[in-house]
């Protein structure tokens, strides 16, 4: 029942336009780039055979590599997703790859055709960024299944295409969706 989503159709349209502009097959909007990074880290933990299960907190932690000079929210997103951090002296402009998970922090980049195939590339729309809508972020990805999972996770585990009154199962999720007002801006 799409009537539950009325105002959120503008978010769908924004995602479609982001994907077209950046060259990504899919874009998933969130309330911030930090939360886009967190969801991307969690997704990589879930899908990479070399990483420990999401619910096994006793397993050894895997480290991600971050530049010594980055926004603190990037480190917090990695830590909150269960990773250790290995700091490196990495020089970067606009974006950088977070190894070994294939997540790209592109908070300071927004250009036509920028999508890096195979990555989860995270964007920022905070007021000081290239597309300054005030607040918001997005994850660029290449797979419909990945986009569907990330959309559910950002919306409290709900399927956005199913009425909240009809949905019987709510999986893992967080309250990290982009508001229609931000998407419209």
What do you see in this structure?
- The protein is of the alpha/beta class and 185 residues long.
- It is built from five helices and seven strands, in the order αβαβαβββββαα.
- The chain has helices at 9-22, 33-47, 72-80, 144-154, 180-184, and strands at residues 26-30, 63-67, 84-88, 96-98, 103-105, 120-124, 137-141.
- The strands form two sheets. The chain has a five-stranded mixed sheet with strand order 1-7-6-5-4, with helices on both faces.
- A hairpin with a 4-residue loop joins strand 4 and strand 5.
- Helix 2 (33-47) runs parallel beside helix 3 (72-80).
- The radius of gyration is 16 Å and the shape is globular.
- The relative contact order is 0.22.
Short note summarizing the structure:
This protein has 185 residues and is α/β, with parallel strands linked by helices.
Total DSSP E strands: 7
| Span between termini | 26 Å
Structural class based on helices, strands and sheet pairing: alpha/beta
Identify low-pLDDT runs.
none
Order of helices and strands: HEHEHEEEEEHH
What fraction, in percent, of the residue positions are helical? 25-40%
Number of helices, where a helix is a run of at least 4 consecutive DSSP H or I residues? 5
Mean pLDDT: 89
- Name the beta content range: 15-25%
Question: What is the radius of gyration computed over CA atoms, rounded to a whole number of angstroms?
Answer: 16 Å
| Most strands sheet | 5 strands, mixed
The 3D shape can be described as globular
Biggest sheet strand order reads 1-7-6-5-4
